[in-house]
Amino acid sequence: MNTKSLSTVLIILFAAIFSNCAGKGEEASTEDGIGKMSYAENLRIEDRDGYSLVTVRNPWDTLKTLQRYILVDKDSALPSPLPEGTLIRTPVKNALIYSAVHSGLVGDLGAGDAIGGVCNARYVTDSLLRVRIKTGEVVDCGEDMNPDVEKIIKLHPEVIMLSPFESGDRYSKISKLGIPMIQCADYMENSGLAQAEWMRFYGLLFGKGEEADARFNKIEIRYKELKGIASRASSQPKVLLDQRYGQSWSVPGGKSTMGRLISDAGGLNPFARYDKSGGVYLAPEKVLAEGGDADIWLVRYNQPGEKSLRELSADAPLNSKVKAFKEGNVYGCNTYYVPFFDEAPFHPDLLLEEMIKLFHPGLLQGDTTLRYFKKMEK
Predict the structure, then answer these.
(1) For the domain 231-375, what is the CATH superfamily, name and number?
(2) Which pLDDT score, from 0 to 100, does residue 122 have?
(3) Confidence band (pLDDT; 50, 70, 90) for 277?
(4) How many other CB atoms are found less than 10 A from the CB of residue 148?
(5) Rounded average pLDDT over 332-355
(6) Which residue ranges make up each domain of the chain?
(7) Domains 3-188 and 231-375 share a fold
(8) Most buried residue among 36, 84, 219, 333 by CB atoms closer than 10 A?
């Protein structure tokens, strides 16, 4: 049998072993308020008799369900009947995690040992996890868009945590393996607290539900406190985010997490009129026309060395035309070193605090140290 044939057989066998779809039974209650989250709009968690029913709404067609999960403790007998959905026995002890955002959260919840494999390993900034990847304790399964299927089969994960896309065929290769795919649609929420609230779901997956609830409650209290302080600021600087990549520039829509964070920190998002919960892709010239008068420019990038204003100007000539560039108010976050994407999505209070320090110096009492951004030098 040749290698290709062997791989095909392994995939079929693996799919049979991991066929975790529960049988038909009662349907999820549609009664308003049952399982409803405080902020997240695309997530619902219902405590049932002997299991938790988790429903992920399709962010691109909100009248449809993206996925349903039935979480049953590994030490408990399966309840009967069960509704339709993907059955997952918890706590998960061997997960393949595609994004550093989610591997970082799992580590924060005290379940880092359950990370069996990762994709996009080069974006992981957690030092302990990087060591585990280097020693092979955690398997590097390649890039998320082109994962190493044979490594995944060998890893034998209980679940794969990944971020869904509107075009559902991006993960067609691994979907054939029959491994439960956790649709991490948290990034499609429209506020920092809504995205962070998804940690309640992820906590349940890894047997850390109480820890996740306590962590979120603390974040919520601090976020509201900071938002209240920012609302008392006497000015609202206009804020530009990131820069062009390729032929377009992704700017935060009015309902996006970053857009809301800018607003909650007492800033003005030049692209708030775009009624979208995600990024809006515009021609660079249009971005300059609508946001070129920004008072502050926050640039996230990933490279071995720090980016300078000179380099930023060399990236694209129009960058030097931005008001914040001319006045030296550009702040860079080098995600090559800084755990922004590992940390900020599930710590919106920390990012909000940083934005307030940048937008309104002196408004917050105490430490003025910046966690993510630093002023870009010439």
Answers:
(1) Nitrogenase molybdenum iron protein domain (3.40.50.1980)
(2) 85
(3) confident
(4) 16
(5) 93
(6) 3-188, 231-375
(7) yes
(8) 333
Residues 6 or more apart whose Cβ sits within 8 Å of residue 194: 37, 39, 40, 41, 257
Residues β-bridged to residue 239? 296
Contact 105, 123 (CB under 8 A): no
Record: fold of 3-188: Rossmann fold (3.40.50)
Model pTM score: 0.84
For 296-326, letters b (16+ CB in 10 Å) and e give bbbbbbeeeeebebeebbeeeebbeebbbbe
